[in-house]
Amino acid sequence: MVQGQTVAADQPFLDSSDSDYGQSSHEHSSRPSSVEDDDDGHLIYRHGDILRDRYKIVSTLGEGTFGKVVKVVDIRTEKVVALKVIKNVEKYREAAKLEINVLEKLAEADPENKRLCVTMLDWFDYHGHMCIVFEMLGLSVFDFLKENNYQPYPLEQVRHIGYQMCYSVKFLHENRLTHTDLKPENILFCNSDSDVSYHTKKKRENRRVRDTHIRLIDFGSATFDHEHHSTVVSTRHYRAPEVILELGWAQPCDVWSIGCILFELYLGITLFQTHDNREHLAMMERILGPLPYRMCRKTKTKYFYHGRLDWDDKSSAGRYVRENCKPLKRYIPGEDEDHRHLFDIIFRMLEYEPSQRITLAEALEHPFFAKLPAELLLHKQDQRLNGLTPELKSELRERSHSLSR
């Protein structure tokens, strides 16, 4: 069964002052009277409709504030692909153009599609609806977790998923790009087929995904270094302290998000389960210790009094934080080396000071990932390739392609 992309309903969009997006090669015809939108700007379609004489709609895969993702058959290639249909609303249309620009730049930088970002196959303007065609992928790591009753992933699977996140996002950072919306909904399995077993103690089924290869999706908020940086980025639970404190942000805010995701995948719970900035900061202090004095003094936000968080431990919110959060070390379920390494890398990703936070190049060399099989250590393969002549690189690529076939 082909699974579909999950779409986040709260995806933020950023403005850009200087995107070089262009669409000269992608024609769009006048809108026929049969094409209609609903009151929210979604395209009204039926299963079996064909867009641009090429994409036949099979079913709806997901819906968000920006539009819908539908499963379609590309009549030209007879392949099943995913089509993101943006609302006929100006701000979402402009955001989609920015996403297309990012995806085109990433394709230029990674022509062989080795960096684990979702592949854009085509895009077009369908009567005011920007449409982006993607490869079909499986469930998001969040949806798989949800369908598995929030039973966490085994440590070996967290290791591989986490490594791939670091590898893929490092590629973005090397290209002066920050994703800004990393979360489990935006990490998709290439194929989410699973094996089911029965847990006799818990009296419920447990699903285990067979293949942990992933793709990074949703570049609608991705921001180049030279572009306008919106004050608020990231979905709440994965938002770094420098963003909440409005101290400016850059690539390290992605690293913070990855740390939160690793925790969630391994324990099946969200690290910062809140919807309020002050409470979020109180949770951080409960889990990670006091915020640095420098950050408290520098912020112009109103969450502090004399350089300390203005927070009442005895209030109902204070009790909630005390009862639902504990120091990060107390979440470690075992004393063995694997657990020490996992929580060490999470600690280093959750450094308050962005300048002190581990970089993704450093993360890839962390002992937690050292136990991965050599064929999965993609950065090591890159290092070896970088030391080879172009001729040898080409020969090795040909050999690996023939092996994968």
Please give the largest β-sheet: 6 strands, antiparallel
Proportion of residues in helical segments = 25-40%
Output the structural class: alpha+beta
Let me know the average pLDDT.
89
Q: What is the approximate shape?
A: globular
- Number of E-state strands: 16
The total of helices stands at 12
Helices and strands, in order, run as: EEEEEEHEEHHEEEEEEHHHHEEHHHHH
State the separation between the terminal residues, measured CA to CA.
22 Å
Strand content bin = 15-25%
The side-by-side strand order for the widest beta sheet comes to: 3-4-5-6-8-7
Domain Protein kinase: 55-369
Region (Disordered): 1-39
Organism: Limulus polyphemus
InterPro entries: CLK_kinases (IPR051175), Kinase-like_dom_sf (IPR011009), Prot_kinase_dom (IPR000719), Protein_kinase_ATP_BS (IPR017441), Ser/Thr_kinase_AS (IPR008271)
